[in-house]
Each structure stands twice: as C-alpha cells, then as structure tokens.
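Example S7 (structure tokens).
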C-alpha cells in the first residue's frame, strides 16, 4: 500500500487538539498524563485506533486529509478517551461507561462510537451477496473467508445464510 503524506499544517492541528484535550483531562482528573505517540498508519475505513499498551494513536491519513477539522474534532478525542479510560480504569469495554464518561464529562465531546465520514476513497473491492430480504455488501476479506470455507454470514433480519448475488 502506498503511504499518504499528511501535510505538516494538518499534523500540527492534530497535535494542538491532542495536547489541548490531554491538558483538559489532566486538569479535570488531577493526573499528569504522558503524551501519546501519534502516527498516520491506520488503513481501511477505520478513522483511528488506540493502542493501549503502547500509548499510541493511529490515524487514517486519507480520512484525515479528506475531513480535516471534523476528523480532528471527533477522532482525536475519541481515541484519546480510549487511552485515558485505560489509564484510569484499566481494561474496560471499548465504548463502555468509563469511555463515555471520559468523552462526555471530561473531554466535553459527544460519545459517538463510529464516524460518519465518506469511506468511498478508502474502501476496497466490494462483493454483493443476498439473502431472502435484502442485498449485502461484503469486503474482500469476508468474501475470501467464505471462499475458503472459514466463515459463513447470516442476515440479521431474516436469519438466512448469505449467498453470492446473481448478476
């Protein structure tokens, strides 16, 4: 995969927001937190991820460039909240009450579990499957698992096994 270069001004905006939210959390919780490492190696449709033991935040450079301020305002606090919840409470549910507390009370940001950014530019090939009630789009990874006999997917609506859609 070709790496995407994030402009320096955007990297600086990310760091400003991360440091501001980290200071906000430190003031509220009366704890000095180390600054997490931030890198731009997240791939696919995921905007970001927190590596708890490494105290690291991975960001998707393509989604950051395409969504800039909205990405910074939503994703940076979201991933930082995972690190802070881990630091304060230990191993907890990823989007559980501790994480929501950090998001809403400490960082003063809505606790949204997923982003709403367009993923058209980062989405890999899609395979169409169907069941009795609807069409489904599966990723290449899901499709390959089906081909290798390692997985089968069931529709949550009708409970029927998904089959490749007829062309």
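Recovered sequence:
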């Amino acid at each position: 995969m070709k790496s995407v270069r994030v402009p320096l001004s955007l990297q600086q905006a990310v760091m400003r927001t991360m440091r501001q939210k980290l200071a906000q959390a430190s003031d509220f919780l009366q704890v000095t937190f180390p600054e997490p490492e931030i890198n731009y190696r997240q791939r696919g449709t995921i905007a970001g991820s927190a590596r708890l033991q490494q105290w690291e935040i991975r960001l998707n450079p393509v989604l950051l460039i395409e969504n800039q301020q909205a990405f910074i305002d939503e994703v940076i606090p979201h991933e930082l909240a995972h690190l802070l919840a881990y630091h304060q409470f230990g191993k907890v549910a990823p989007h559980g009450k501790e994480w929501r507390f950090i998001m809403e009370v400490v960082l003063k940001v809505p606790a949204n579990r997923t982003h709403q950014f367009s993923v058209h530019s980062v989405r890999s090939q899609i395979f169409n499957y169907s069941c009795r009630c609807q069409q489904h789009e599966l990723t290449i990874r899901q499709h390959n698992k089906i081909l290798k006999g390692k997985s089968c997917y069931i529709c949550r609506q009708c409970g029927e096994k998904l089959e490749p859609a007829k062309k």
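Notes on this example. The first helix runs from residue 8 to 29.
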